[in-house]
Amino acid sequence: MGLTFFVFLSSGLFLGWSLGANDAANVFGTAVGSRMLRFSTAATVCAIFVVLGAVMSGAGASHGLGQLGAVNALGGSFTVALAAALTVYGMTKIGLPVSTTQAVVGGIVGWNLFSQTATDLTALTKIVGTWVAAPILGALFALLLYGLTRRLIDRTKPHILWLDQWTRIGLLVAGALGAYSLGANNIANVVGVFIPASPLEDLSLGVFTFTGQQRLFLLGALAIGVGTFFSKRVMMTVGKSIVTVGPVGGWIVVMAQSLVLFVFSSQSLEAFLVRIGLPPLPLVPVSSSQAVVGAVCGLALAHGFKGARQINWAVLRNIALGWVATPVIAAAISYFALYFVQNVFEQPVYQAAVAAAFELPL
Amino acid sequence: MHCYLWRREGHVVDSGRHIWFTQVLRLNLTGACMAELKISPFRRTQVLKSQIDEMLDVVSQGALTYKHGILHYVRHGWDEAVEQKFQQLSAFEDRGDTLRGAIGQALYTEMLLPDTSGDVLGLLGFLDRLLDEMKHGFMVVRIERPKIPAEFHDIWIECVGLAVDTVEQVVVAARSYFRDPQTARDHIHKVHFLETEADEMAIRIMEQVFQSDLSLDRKMLLRGQVWLIDRIADLADDAGDALAIYAVKRSV
Q: With the CA atoms of B47, B49, B50 and B52 taken in that order, what torsion angle do they form, in degrees rounded to the nearest 10?
């Protein structure tokens, strides 16, 4: 059982690697693109904090994704993750920032279609809604942070060298926060589909217990961590192609994107919003690519018409095309791959009796 | 390469003899690791900031030295005091070269100011050229020792004063650039004003020289000297133009 599970999990780990190679670029792209941080430093910090975020705070967004469809057989989990991974890998190869969330959602919808399970439209609407909300929130956070940073710099008038020094530290801290939030938010994309079928059990390590889900998250997070070391090319695309971002602007983008990921994955924030009587934000995996593009555009718009003219709209158009294409391609690959796995390799890809259940007991 | 992690000195008495010892725990380091330990990023930033400040001080002091030297020469001819000023200016120029090289090397090897290092070095290059230009002008005076007729003393002194004011205003604008690029532009328009004044003064001197009864060779000699003074103001104006662009580029 153990070996079989790891063979099936390999597609999830491949997806984790793809996510690391692609989404680490969103966290540290502007920092590396503006040459404020070395790629090796960025990748190392990113890998460490992705693992921490996934293991410590990965449960919230996983629960949100589980509502879309409970892939209840290991063969199905393997195939859905493989379909998403192939989609992300292919688009990363051609240098396009691609949304892993959309690839996974596409893969799960493909599984729902294949297993003739009704897709929970409420959950789907909630997730798709974040596709719109994430870039808008990213832009709003960037506008807000730009105003505050500008005011702070105008008031304190730091020497150019000290500004440089503090910006480097700020980029590292914001990047670490972003990587933590990425791990917490996007681990659901990597191993979320394996949770219902996972045989991993709780492991007691003296003073604290490592739950089966946390062990699964750790494996996925390690795959993401390895992937971050392969993200240089996409980092350069994010850092330079959309709009020319200076070091302070880079900090604003990273921070804005980190905040977007944080608000969509923090269970503490959700509890706080409920406590003060505000509607909570849905805890679902959001696209860090969308958040970062929104933040970069927000930063450009903060400069008014002059800034808007600087935006490289052709790159944005390609990214938007990727957003539309990603879930469709992933769903198609998932559907056909499930057919092959079931009929050629004779592996069960769903359990009909349980497939009707949407809600996962996480 | 190595550094001391722990070091202790003391003595023991063995058979009535005092034996002094030093205990040392050493850590062997590679060159790269040593460079990391040698200076912290904050210390490095502080050192570099001091070097930039010193560069600006050197240019400002060089300009004042040039002014005092030339004024003294105009009134008293080449004497010990003027020679001393020339030596001082040469020392400032040497120091400027050294500082510019050190700052440039630090900026590139440490990957500091990735987006503005080119502008900072361009600005320091202009400042260094100003020192070179002032030293060159002073050296030509030292070689040619032109006799400046008494009727031109006041206007000559005024022209030198304007050229030096232009340089000083560039230094003020450069100081602003490093902290508050918005205000740098407030100083740059003064640079343009002073340069125009210096130009007009130089033309007036040359007109008066060529309308005087001096021999043609003296007229040519004096014209060359005036050009050298005016070139300082022109170069300062070029620095002001570049600085205006650098200041615009330094936005969030």
A: 130
